[in-house]
Design goal:
Blueprint (H helix, E strand, L loop, with lengths): L4 H7 L5 H16 L5 E3 L3 E3 L5 H12 L8 E3 L5 H6 L5 H16 L24 E2 L4 H8 L9 H10 L1 E3 L13 E5 L6 H8 L2 H4 L4 E4 L7 H14 L6 E2 L9 H5 L6 E5 L1 H11 L5 E2 L2 E9 L1 H11 L7 E6 L1 H9 L2 H7 L2 E5 L15 E4 L2 H8 L4 E4 L2 H10 L1 E2 L1
Parallel strand pairs: 2-3, 2-4, 6-7, 6-9, 7-8, 11-12, 11-14, 12-13, 14-15
Antiparallel strand pairs: 1-5, 10-16
Helix pairs in contact: 1-2, 2-3, 2-7, 3-5, 6-10, 8-10, 13-15, 13-17
Bound molecules: FE3-S4 cluster (F3S).
Length: 401
């Protein structure tokens, strides 16, 4: 790989040993993808997990003096003060989160603890080269903003943040951003929830960049977030195109770069029904809780929940995961009071796949997100998947149809 003088100096440790380690890793990643050079980035997002390996690596770089050279936001772990106060985490779990906090603080990251940075704190412009990890974040910035990032892992994104460079390969190159699979949506896709199910069709869509046709022109930011999050959970998708909606797909021809699709997939209403039946626990039962915010809910979604529960009392607890910014706004606007008075909780900085939820093991809940059902399932938590409105109604009734 051809390195500039600055990149060679980093590799030789002249910018400190931490930057040297990060550069060595970046070069090895580049070599494994046959990248010819490293190119500068302007921002990054690190999908930290607050688990041992993640803390070990962040501390290794931080103890070796590394600092983020570009603005770098981070994913949620869990809100230490909230869960510690309520005795919902063990000493060792709390310790890991404390260590995570100090490692990333020392690295100079923006401690946003939010998995939807593209909705507020970290928004790239068209064509900007970045390093984003996090399943919904990478497809969102590639597809919706036309910015460029490969599907980084937490560690590679952190190395990119520390060096300020990424190897040039994959989705950074024009030729690799063209559509490969034509996805003709015959189902009537209307609500944000429909995009959750459409996104979970990864197995049927298969490997490659999908180009969706048959979707309406007016798609909410939350629906686009859902589509990318679920695509990248049911498969490995760094980007998608929607003809007439996303910026690199003004026409079908432009989306495919003048080439023919490798294959065509048709999605009908019964495909969505089938996937819902496959991934959701059966309904018709009592529930213990409802969980929202995988990815973190937007203010509009939090408001939607408040509108439904206003003046009522839930029979099953509602957990709403969101960013600290959105929670602060909900407090200011009185939305948080409405939700708390109804028996719901708005929790900032927290992911659904964290040990703070171990008290839900063996219980049954509802969620609008297949991704939320997928990850905590490994922790023994059972989910019935329904639309956001149906989930809130279920929490009010204490059961789901
Ligand atoms: Fe966010 Fe965690 Fe879900 S990072 S997208 S809440 S698995």
């Amino acid at each position: 790989m051809i390195l500039t003088q600055e990149q060679k100096a980093m590799l030789d440790g002249k910018h400190g040993p931490g930057t040297g380690i990060a550069m060595k890793i970046q070069i090895k990643i580049g070599e494994s993808f046959n990248a010819k050079r490293l190119v500068p980035i302007t921002r990054a997002h690190v999908a930290l997990s607050a688990q041992e390996a993640d803390v070990w690596f962040a501390e290794k770089l931080s103890n070796a003096g590394a600092k983020c050279r570009v603005p770098t936001t981070v994913n949620p772990g869990f809100c230490l003060s909230y869960f510690k106060e309520r005795n919902m985490v063990s000493e060792s779990e709390a310790y890991l989160m404390t260590q995570t906090h100090s490692a990333y603080k020392n690295l100079g990251a923006i401690l946003s603890y939010n998995c939807t940075p593209y909705h507020g704190t970290n928004i790239p412009r068209f064509g900007e080269i970045t390093a984003f990890s996090e399943s919904s974040a990478t497809p969102y910035i590639n597809s919706v903003y036309g910015a460029r990032s490969n599907r980084e892992g937490a560690n590679s994104a952190l190395c990119a943040a520390v060096t300020g460079f990424v190897p040039e390969y994959g989705l950074l190159l024009d030729e690799n951003r063209k559509g490969e699979i034509l996805v003709d949506v015959k189902a009537d896709i209307k609500s944000d929830f429909d995009y959750q199910l459409l996104g979970y069709m990864g197995k049927k869509i298969g490997n490659g960049i999908p180009v969706f046709v048959g979707l309406p022109k007016d798609i909410s930011p939350e629906a686009l977030m859902n589509l990318g999050a679920q695509l990248n959970t049911s498969g490995a998708y760094g980007m998608y195109h929607i003809v007439g909606v996303t910026p690199e797909a003004p026409s079908l021809e432009a989306a495919f770069g003048g080439r023919k699709p490798d294959r065509k997939v048709v999605i009908k209403a019964h495909d969505l029904e089938q996937i819902l039946n496959e991934i959701s626990e059966p309904g018709g039962r009592a529930i213990d809780f409802a969980m929202f915010g995988c990815p973190h809910l937007s203010l509009r979604q939090v408001q939607e929940i408040a509108n439904i529960v206003q003046g009522k009392q839930v029979k099953a607890e509602i957990w709403i995961l969101t960013s600290s910014h959105t929670k602060e706004m909900a407090i200011r606007m009185g939305i948080a009071d409405v939700i708390e008075n109804a028996g719901g909780h708005i929790v900032e900085d927290t992911c659904c796949d964290q040990p703070c939820w171990s008290h839900l093991k063996g219980k049954y809940g509802v969620t609008d997100s297949p991704k939320c059902a997928y990850y905590p399932k490994r922790r023994g938590i059972n989910f019935i998947i329904r639309s956001l409105e149906e989930c809130v109604e279920s929490a009010l009734n204490g059961r789901v149809d």
